[in-house]
């Protein structure tokens, strides 16, 4: 019997869920076999973090007046006085002094060279202007130096910046690993390929060929699988459908989607009741279900075959997704192409985004998976 027959509208929800769980298990089983083949040929996965442009920019500089201190004991007092007049606002990455090659002589940042300020014929007194600075220990000579304009966000930026002027740098280990492609261990990479394959398999059943899989990364449990349904309803993009299915798995949801290849993990009543009662205790007198549902994807990861649009990316913000992985860029995508919505200031939730590149043999696995799925479920795909 074909699944399309098995999943007729009159079938009970429980039976549907059981069949769809079998569908998920079968996909996983087959993909695991493919992954074993992939390992034999040492196929690798490439994962690119979608970070703000500031992580990739070259080190820019700006001009500062720099004095010389030849009395070591005056240094901390001078730092204090100069800082009270010119507090290096927004430039906390800069160290105020640096050693010179002359014994016991330091260089000290006095203040930025202002825009339109003539940088010719300046002297210590003209640079200090009306500021009441005790100049004891400051030599007469003042120079204009280039200093790094922005804090170093990566070790590569730091290496360049520190050669220009001493700077503070706190390494973000996750960012460094992420840029080197070392953020995910072998097992995590296997899972990413697995869920991406699931996504690609599902995508073929959609109006637009987009698939979305939502996963609980702690348990690797698939919470929802969705394909695109925009011909049924203009906003039923795969991501929107997936988020709604997650809501449905938690007792909510706005759409009664009964597509043949969508799936949502049926949380047990006990599981849901315990979550709702915890929320009730924390928020007495409020509708616990309503409170819980807006945060329905908290801690979950979304795997999407194509970069989501603005509407879908915002839905992922509202639902508090943890991470998003996608394969193909989209000209109207909001997570790297048109904009980087996930890092927009002012939003009350941010998530990490990665673009995933599957190498040829993995893509081939996807192709065979597509064919196998079609045969298995006898789906009338219009792709
Ligand atoms: Zn969309």
TrEMBL record:
- GO molecular function of the protein, one example? tRNA-specific adenosine-34 deaminase activity
Outline the extent of the CMP/dCMP-type deaminase domain.
Answer: 190-354
Q: Which InterPro entries match?
A: CMP_dCMP_dom, Cytidine_deaminase-like
Q: Which CDD domains match?
A: nucleoside_deaminase
Keyword field contains Acetylation: no
Q: Which UniProt keywords apply?
A: tRNA processing
GO cellular component assignments: cytoplasm; nucleus
Question: Source organism's superkingdom?
Answer: Eukaryota
Q: Kindly list the biological process annotations in GO that this record carries.
A: tRNA processing
Q: Which family does it belong to?
A: Belongs to the cytidine and deoxycytidylate deaminase family. ADAT3 subfamily.
What protein name does the entry list? Answer: Probable inactive tRNA-specific adenosine deaminase-like protein 3
Q: Which organism is it from?
A: Trichonephila inaurata madagascariensis
State the encoding gene: adat3
